[in-house]
Amino acid sequence: VPRIIDVHAHLTDPSFGDIEGVIARARECGVEGVVVSITRPAEIERAEELLASFPGFLSLAMGFDPTVLDEGAYQHFCRIAEEKRAALVAIGEVGLDHFYVKDHSERAVQESLFRRSIRLAKSLSLPLVIHSRSAGRRALEALRSEGAARVLMHAFDGKSGDAMAAAKEGYYFSIPTSVIHSEQKQKLARLLPLERLMLETDSPVLGPERGARSEPSNLVLAARKVAEIKRVPVERVAEVTTGNARAFFGLA
Ligand SMILES: [Zn+2]
């Protein structure tokens, strides 16, 4: 079994009532770590419970839902992130979502919150995990103009050319399990060097079966598909993406 790390999973989701089984299945499938992603401060309690239950296996990234355009909620997020700094391995996911937010003035608010999140990560000396939906280029431009250096673009849906340019500058991209059926993700995996890739499930969404709950054990499908696309052994994909994840998030 390849030793792999799921760098993006929403394990605080209420659909994971059977968390013991979820973690056991992940371990059986070679997963040796999961970065839990939360997008609302209210999830922090459940996340801390999970981290305490599976020490050394789970780590935590704290972000802010880019479709929430509320100043008070945003300030609350910043306060909790600062308070919980010691428990975090990244700020994220934060970013831009032009799929759900179409109004121009709302997009401006979204971008200003995103830019503040980039600065927050810098002030806390944490790397960034970026959500960009229908806003890939715009998100990359904001990151560059804020001077962000430690960046992981998660489930990137933008143009491969934009991704290539960002990869050349050292940004990472995590390939989700949906790579098994998404041509856009296959193209991304083909074009970007393995040295810039990580693997994610984005559980409970973006799974192999549309509409069904996904879980970290499915990460092995992404590893195999990337290996097939890149024509390298799956062990090589595991070794490089796991090394990238450990270095990026500072995992032991
Ligand atoms: Zn996510």
Polypeptide structure, described:
Strand 7 (172-176), helix 7 (183-191) and strand 8 form a beta-alpha-beta unit. An 8-stranded parallel β-sheet has the order 1-2-3-4-5-6-7-8. The model has no long low-confidence stretch (mean pLDDT 96). It is globular. The chain is an alpha/beta fold and 252 residues long. It has helices at residues 19-28, 44-53, 71-83, 104-123, 136-145, 160-168, 183-191, 219-230, 234-249; strands spanning 4-9, 31-38, 58-62, 88-97, 128-133, 151-154, 172-176, 197-200. The protein contains 9 helices and 8 strands. The structure holds zinc ion. Zinc ion (ZN) binds at residues 8, 10, 37, 93, 202. Zinc ion (ZN) is lined by residues 8, 10, 37, 93, 202.
Main sheet? Answer: 8 strands, parallel
Which strand order does the major sheet show? 1-2-3-4-5-6-7-8
Mean pLDDT across the residues is 96
Low-confidence stretches: none
- The tally of beta strands, per DSSP, is 8
Question: SSE order, as H and E?
Answer: EHEHEHEHEHEHEHEHH
- Given the C-alpha coordinates, what overall shape results? globular
Q: What multimeric state do the chains show? A: single chain
Radius of gyration: 17 Å
Small ligands present = zinc ion
